[in-house]
């Protein structure tokens, strides 16, 4: 069996197949999942990786051996699994390693209603139970029902954002050989959208480029195709299609902070006075725009577990992250890249201006993007930065160190998994942003020398 301590992360299970994650491990986790959740029925879906079917089958054996019935949804995106968990009222497991290379696989788990399972909400207990199986095998085992949930998923998204009346749009979608190639055609069918499909063939070896749109090199083909076809916009999905990146008609990348602000404004038009969640490295423009539209912005730490917890606590209607994860109360507080994309399509298709003009109202500051520095003594680096900016701004330590000045801010925080410090900086103009960024990086660099 694989090394459970290594593959169980803070929010999911992920590891190299078969060295770290193999079928006996998946079977043991399936049994433990049923024991910990007390589930009588479980829904399971998987992505297009070569290892996903055998791993999912092994998990299902373990779950059924503990007496649980299993609804097997087959191929799906992660947000399709959330739809399944929410609409069926069942705990669920998605087999995917998201944007990781082909040799990886993993599991994303949730309780009924798509409530996430993380380290302190059951994941660690599942790990411990899987390490020392103690349950009794049931005879007969639970039943297995295969169910195609794609049509229901597509219909549900279309009830949340009505695109039937938009003007005709030319859209390029780069699925990166991931699950967007499975879900996008089902959702766009019959809509006034002329679709140009890039890499829709499901292939867990990712023969064209990594299915990780946060990396600029993975957007090059999409940007070129938008310009070559004269498209109105481009959309790029990650491997399990729960994240979406947007390209405008000029081939320019649009910051997820801008998309967060745009979708927040649309959700506030539907739910006046509602709460909107944003993490602490999204643009200052996000809370400003939320307030201007009558909403209540709430700032959280980085990470989907913190976003989802705050959304549940506050009843927020929407949440956005810098990583292009977008969360919706109407979607069981879960994230869906395709639902966010549909909001962008609606905003564009309801009027005649190009996307670059539509989003200009939501883009107010100049950002550095996330910059990583390898630093062994992270505490010393943070201490020196704190000392250098001691009398120049306001400090908070919600997640790492955030310093806010009159027209700028930066956040410096440690990676949870690597000896890295991550810097995000933003200011009213490029000159100020560059100056702040370079000063912080210089201080950090002296510690790592």
Automatic annotation (TrEMBL):
<feature type="domain" description="Alpha-D-phosphohexomutase alpha/beta/alpha">
    <location>
        <begin position="261"/>
        <end position="365"/>
    </location>
</feature>
<dbReference type="Pfam" id="PF00408">
    <property type="entry name" value="PGM_PMM_IV"/>
</dbReference>
<dbReference type="InterPro" id="IPR005846">
    <property type="entry name" value="A-D-PHexomutase_a/b/a-III"/>
</dbReference>
<keyword id="KW-0460">Magnesium</keyword>
<dbReference type="InterPro" id="IPR005845">
    <property type="entry name" value="A-D-PHexomutase_a/b/a-II"/>
</dbReference>
<dbReference type="Pfam" id="PF02880">
    <property type="entry name" value="PGM_PMM_III"/>
</dbReference>
<dbReference type="Pfam" id="PF02879">
    <property type="entry name" value="PGM_PMM_II"/>
</dbReference>
<dbReference type="InterPro" id="IPR016055">
    <property type="entry name" value="A-D-PHexomutase_a/b/a-I/II/III"/>
</dbReference>
<dbReference type="InterPro" id="IPR005841">
    <property type="entry name" value="Alpha-D-phosphohexomutase_SF"/>
</dbReference>
<dbReference type="GO" id="GO:0016868">
    <property type="term" value="F:intramolecular phosphotransferase activity"/>
</dbReference>
<feature type="domain" description="Alpha-D-phosphohexomutase alpha/beta/alpha">
    <location>
        <begin position="153"/>
        <end position="251"/>
    </location>
</feature>
<feature type="domain" description="Alpha-D-phosphohexomutase alpha/beta/alpha">
    <location>
        <begin position="6"/>
        <end position="131"/>
    </location>
</feature>
<protein>
    <submittedName>
        <fullName>Phosphomannomutase/phosphoglucomutase</fullName>
    </submittedName>
</protein>
<dbReference type="GO" id="GO:0005975">
    <property type="term" value="P:carbohydrate metabolic process"/>
</dbReference>
<dbReference type="InterPro" id="IPR005843">
    <property type="entry name" value="A-D-PHexomutase_C"/>
</dbReference>
<dbReference type="GO" id="GO:0046872">
    <property type="term" value="F:metal ion binding"/>
</dbReference>
<keyword id="KW-0413">Isomerase</keyword>
<feature type="domain" description="Alpha-D-phosphohexomutase C-terminal">
    <location>
        <begin position="370"/>
        <end position="441"/>
    </location>
</feature>
<comment type="similarity">
    <text>Belongs to the phosphohexose mutase family.</text>
</comment>
<keyword id="KW-0479">Metal-binding</keyword>
<dbReference type="InterPro" id="IPR005844">
    <property type="entry name" value="A-D-PHexomutase_a/b/a-I"/>
</dbReference>
<keyword id="KW-0597">Phosphoprotein</keyword>
<dbReference type="Pfam" id="PF02878">
    <property type="entry name" value="PGM_PMM_I"/>
</dbReference>
<dbReference type="InterPro" id="IPR036900">
    <property type="entry name" value="A-D-PHexomutase_C_sf"/>
</dbReference>
